[in-house]
Amino acid sequence: MQPSLEKLRKFFRLEHENSYSNTAVIGGLANILNYWEGEARNDNLPEDVVQATVQTLHAYADQAPEQRAEALISLWKQIQDEVPEAAAARKQTASRLPASEPEKAEAPARQGNPVEPPVSEEKPEAVPVVEAPAAASADTPPLPAPQPVPPVHQQADPQKNRPQANPKGKGSGRADSRPGGVTSKRPIALNASLTVLAGVGPKHASMLTRLGLNTLGDMLYNFPRRYDDYSQLKPIRDVFYGQQVTVIGTLTMVDSRQVRGGKMSIIEAVINDGTAGLRLTWFNKPWLINRLKVGEAISVSGTIDQYLGRLVMNSPDWEPVEAENLHTNRIVPIYSLTANVTQLWLRKLMHQVVVYWAPKLTDHLPDAIRQAANLPELGTALLQAHFPDSQEKLKAARQRLAFDEIFFLQTGVLRQRRDYQSVAGRVFEVENAWLETRLSALPFALTNSQKKAIGDIRLDLKSGKPMNRLLQGDVGSGKTVVAALAAAMINQSGAQVAVMAPTSILAEQHYRNFLSLLAGEGGPLKPEQIRLLVGDTAGGEKDEIRAGLADGTIKVVIGTHALIEDPVTFADLQFVVVDEQHRFGVEQRAALRSKGTHPHLLVMTATPIPRSLALTVYGDLDLSVMDDMPPGRQAIETHVLTPRERERAYTLVKGQAASGYQAFIIYPLVEDDGSGETPSPLLAATQEHERLQKEVFPHLKLGLLHGRMKPDEKDAVMLAFRDRKYDVLISTTVVEVGVDVPNATVMMVEGANRFGLAQLHQLRGRVGRGEAQSYCLLIPDHEDAAENERLQAMAETNDGFILAERDLQQRGPGEFLGTRQAGYATSLKMASLSDIPLIEKAREQAQALFARDPDLKNPENALLSEALGRFWGSTKGDVS
Length: 880
Fold this sequence. Notes:
It contains 29 helices and 23 strands. The protein has 880 residues and is of the alpha/beta class.
């Protein structure tokens, strides 16, 4: 056996005889590393063994005796598996303890019985040692420091949550049945529960679960939420108030005192670096008095504060200068926390996992893609993303990891698109003469973008593949007309059409429009062939509609979720239209499409989709953009008012009502329940309806609409408002989508700062639908919010696409994705869906790869296919 291993075995044996008291070496077992690490490398020991030994012994002092026993047993088992000479020596030892059963070691130790480690009876030779420095600081004492991560050759025992020896030896991966017999190079131990880490028991693991950390692999991708850059050391004399710095000095004073009648303890210390002194203060950490020693050199990091005219640093992170600087003197990662988990403890745990495992990962990106995109290797990127050496390396690491996410997203949607188009769709030919007849029957001329969208749909319908198109048009751009004409193209062949809307109000509006466009004078259908099916449709009428759909006499049905209920069947459903698609989940859209045989699909949205989302999340859809408005529409004047200017808004409403027009007043709440949970500045619709009717608009008729009303009540109010029975409609955001009241010219939004740009733009779109000049008045719930960026952006432009880009940057993709595929937004930890250059780079590489190897069957793409599967997981692969 190599001399370095022989010495290690002797020290382990002595440590066992001393009941794992960390006294085999003066100052602690970790002190042997001062000379052992170099000797081990001279003996050509595997680097895995060297690193595992270093990590185990560094963590040894902070563990309980039972954990120390388990740590040494586990380490020696790894050495035996990776070094043949150590395994041979094991056979010569009289008594042995199986390393795969550490739990058996703990029981006799607790009973006071001797436990034999896998080492010989020899005593250690004299080794020169030095007194060990004090242990590194910890911000809290309750959680023990973690032991090094199980090495590659171990895998989790699901019954015991303990490391278990791999019977096949030191193989690090698992067999893969891909062509060419490629073996996955992802270490199987990354699937192990965190309880395999000594010091992380079930209680600690359950706390980490709240952070989404269940396995070692999860920890690698648990990226910091931000970083504090303490890498620039400064002499104490050069620091100034408010600066975030790291300084190194010697402790010249340490003191403890009680304040507030003993309810709070304060630890005070002073460090001096020869240029000046700095006072340090910690609150309610009494254990620090035993860890901070006068004369010890420490490194502290934090923000410089001021007290009684003197510079101080409150609650700084600190470490002995000899310790590895995880928390100070570097760019420090700051992780998300949960109850009872501290930053220092989690950072130390993360460091041990990342440093051990990141270099062991084989990059899933083929070299050709990685080099073409100028990206670092995966292991390097993970290490630098957690513990960066510089801002430049951190930027490169984040760029690589963000590329992976966008690349996986691109590849996934390209695969979805291919899968959907791999089946046959019925061909519907549309003659020019027929289309001209339909267009000439319309009471208005189509815009250029409407004509372009209809042309796109015609090409889709005759392609022989199912149409899969997103019709994206700003509020009032005429999407319904396009959908109705597309439905007529399907109906001319006798097939059926289903239109699904998110609300009964919007479904009823579509129903009226379809009746007017398709069953009016000279229309291709009869009124009885177009029906409305919503939750409140009477039972007898529902049965009649279901029968008509089943026998094919009803050609167009428009409805809500009622369309996807099981009793609804179609004779020949060939075209599905989903309006405001972001309000429906994947399962709901799939359920409607499943009622036909590969029907053509058109999804519509009035929310402008930023270009970056169109390239990524909606990359599986063909896109038709309607970006011009029907003739006669005027730009809506938008003004941001302070709460004190509310009377100006009321005056405008009164003036418009006197001219025969109508107004909306929108509130963010239905009512204030008096619980105290509602912030007082927020106005509620029901209370304000009463106040406005009595005090502000006594001579006008005011209606009330909110989401707690029954559907038939909401419909009745909206119909009354449309028919001019109300001058002003007091409402919540239930009017956001689809309500068409051409006579309304004022949209007044209270608490406007609480809405995103997309929602405010939708609300603004409820007015300006006639030829009269219309106005949008935005009133925040407090004076300062009048400077809100979103509100000012609304006043600057009526262009929904510009606003959509700003909303994406300010509020993220949630405003646009809605209930679309659950994995999209949550799977992106590093990437930003507003980073156009990165998205275009990833899309270019994904398309090139897809052209070469769409199924990722080539051996060089096997690991990429595996990583892609992990990224998408159980996410539904439905389009739109």
